[in-house]
Amino acid sequence: MNILELSNETLKEIFKEREKDTHKGTYGYVGIMGGCMEYTGAIKLANMSSTALRAGCGVVRLIIPKSIESIVASYLLEQTIFPIDNDEENKMQFNKQEMDQSLEKLKALAIGMGWGKGRDNQKILTYILKNKTIPCIIDADGLNTLSEMNLDILNQTNCKIILTPHLKEFERLSKVSIENIKKNPIEIASNFAKQYNVILLLKGSTTIATNGKSTYLVGSGCPGMATAGSGDVLSGILVGMLGYHRVDVEVIAAGSYLAGKAGELAQEKYTDISMKASDTIEMIPEAIKNIRKK
Fold it and tell me: How many CB atoms lie within 10 A of CB 50?
């Protein structure tokens, strides 16, 4: 097993200054799919203060059920919005034409934040994995949906898949108890990533990013990030970076490092008790400056 740490040189290269002759298309259109009536806050937070845009993509498209369009729209400034049909329970409903249109031009998609337990969630996720070639970050309720499906679909898709579970979500996915995961997290995470041909980002005090061949240990972060919405912020950062970066375990590890560094700066300003996830978003620019100065 090849266990690595991100070097300053690698981080500087990933977050390097940009050429003058560029435009928004250079840095990619990305999508964030999720939200439902019960959990509108999570998807708002994933986009609040343009999280993905702060991480560098050119355009963010928020893909949500029509039932919450008016609620979420007032929180959007630079982002665009694509409403999808909802069922009588106000959950996202599968509609092939709308699904195809919502994913047009996207360089990457994050799916699952605040999605809830919709009856069409499996149908939507299956359709994307079987019919698209877009890189997909699957998080939160996307992971819960996936854990109820046959994971062999991960070996059959043409999408490049990034899974971002915390320990409980990884327990559901892997069917390995948290107690046993904690005994050997690096090996279990690496074996899972290799078996299903995914990049796995196992979140914790030391986050493990692995593709089954190379494994990065990311130690940035702080106790203040133990608050609702921090995972949504991380997903927003990752999908924003994939708008203009290759899908690579090193890039995913760097995104996790950036989220942790921004969290550390937020904790310095707001304390470990008082900070909230949106404070991490506020500090993304300062974290990038710090990386460039190293």
Answer: 18
